[in-house]
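Slide 14.
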Amino acid sequence: MKQRVAIVAGARPNFVKVAPVLRAIQDLNPGFEAVLVHTGQHYSPELSDVFFEQLGIRKPDLHLGAGGSTHGQQTARILEAFEGWLTSTDVPPVAVIVVGDVNSTIAAALAAAKLGIKVIHLEAGLRSFDRGMPEEINRLATDAISDLLLVSEPDGEGNLAREGVPASRIRYVGNVMIDTLVRHVGEAAKLAPALRGSDRPYALVTLHRPSNVDEEGSLTAIVDFLLDIGTKLDVLFPVHPRTKGKLDAFGLSGRLEAAPGLTVLPPLGYLENLALMQGARVVMTDSGGIQEETSFMGVPCLTLRENTERPCTVTLGTNTLVGRDFELARQLVGEILAGTYKTGGPIPGWDGAAAVRVVREVEAFL
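Slide 15: predicted structure.
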């Protein structure tokens, strides 16, 4: 009889990462079976349902229905609900796989670890060294209680070693998010003409980090910058629900919607977002995953943050950290349009086959 392993996902980036792992389990038929748990951290159709549909993820075996709220309340609800299932199910899992760095990640890891169930962290070792980011706290805490740490970024192994994690618990498997990109990039490209509507060069913008959108002064400065960039090339801005609420609250939505050259879009599905990234002259973002995807595709990326937990996208990829230095950002946009912006090289393990390595490492661990 195969051993049960729970795979926990709750937010948009998690879905992109678990999709290839679930597929690899099906294809490789390892010595364990997967129970897919959706925490409900992202629960709106545009942040959840559309990803399951586009990525071919099967219906979750368990939905915890956590919903939104503060970090503490959401984490507590997920922990309580997941612990309840772990202690009541007829066949409890021998291990729990958590992915990424969201509240679902640390909540499920805590529930499992306190019950003596092995914890496997996929995308371990990422560090921004900024404890002002909630995700950094989730990363540190999850790695500290995990039994097997599956690393996606070259610097991750060194980060874990400095924190005292034994080498026997660390495995470099590469980036499963790139597996999903490789599988779907051709399909996404077919959507581009209908999404774009013209052949003019454009920038793609995504923003959702509290440090950028929660304070009126910070968000106003970013809007001013985008309006200026919109005089040089078209700007497409799919607006995250969190960001939309702040734009409305600060009276900034009208300025964006009235600006020539700037198009405000609703949140996009995975394929639509991938299609627009692929065709963009530049992507401006505060998303960690988009730093990875643009680097793999060779699309210039300007990250509106002071740090990154994915430094290989800067040293090997196409990413530059600009923070709130909008003069630097304007200069780099000029270089991009002139064709003189830096180019990157291949990143180890970002090859479309990471999920196979994940499944084999989990099988060997069990």
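Speaker note: The chain has two domains: 3-174+351-365, 185-338.
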